[in-house]
Amino acid sequence: MGRLLVCGIVLLQGTPAVSPQTPTQRFEARYRSARTLRVEFLERYSENGKLVRAEAGTAYFRKPGKMRWEYEKPEKNLFLVDGKTAWLYTPADHTVTKVPARQSEDWRTPFVLLAGEMKLPRVCSKVENTSMLIPEKAGDAILECKLKGADTTRTGNPEYAPPRVFFEVAPEGELVRLVVRPAGGIETEFQFKNWEINPLVPDSLFRFSPPLGVVIVDGLLPSSSGVRQ
Hints:
Elements: H1 23-31, E1 36-47, E2 50-62, E3 66-73, E4 77-81, E5 85-90, E6 95-100, E7 124-129, E8 141-147, E9 164-169, E10 175-181, E11 186-197, E12 215-218, E13 227-228
Parallel strand pairs: 6-12
Antiparallel strand pairs: 1-2, 1-11, 2-3, 3-4, 4-5, 5-6, 7-8, 8-9, 9-10, 10-11, 12-13
């Protein structure tokens, strides 16, 4: 499954007193009052301009700090954050990988901000309009997020250049697309459609119980003891 890092997307808390004017303000305000979210997504992973993999499914977000990515095509997979732990379940491999959410390096993890405060400065040191990406629809804004904490000490080596992160935002503030471009000609893109704000989503949807017989792997932990049943 595509490892998508990304920069935060944030969503959820009250309605501003003044109508926002900038694309960033419209984007933040669009989702701020939501408690739950549902959206259909298409994830595309490319290398040097060539499509390597495309996957589609449905994502859910719930405040505070929970999300669920159900991959349906071309095969079923699940990526879930329950507020403390990130779980990646691959039924075909009978394997579950778990890691504390704050230590997860999965590209989807920053999306948990959609289930938190919708404030881009929490993840971006700077957000600005850019022409580096062509919008899918006329009238959409393209915003580039300069990631907070990006390592700028090794910029002499292209391999360590911080990823470039772009948001495509519709005039009403709806998130249309997210593009992440790390170094090396790699690109991960998420396209979104049919956003639902405050759908009825049970909290049980964000709890994961490993099926019987699967192997659980502790991933990305310095003291990981490896695989266990």
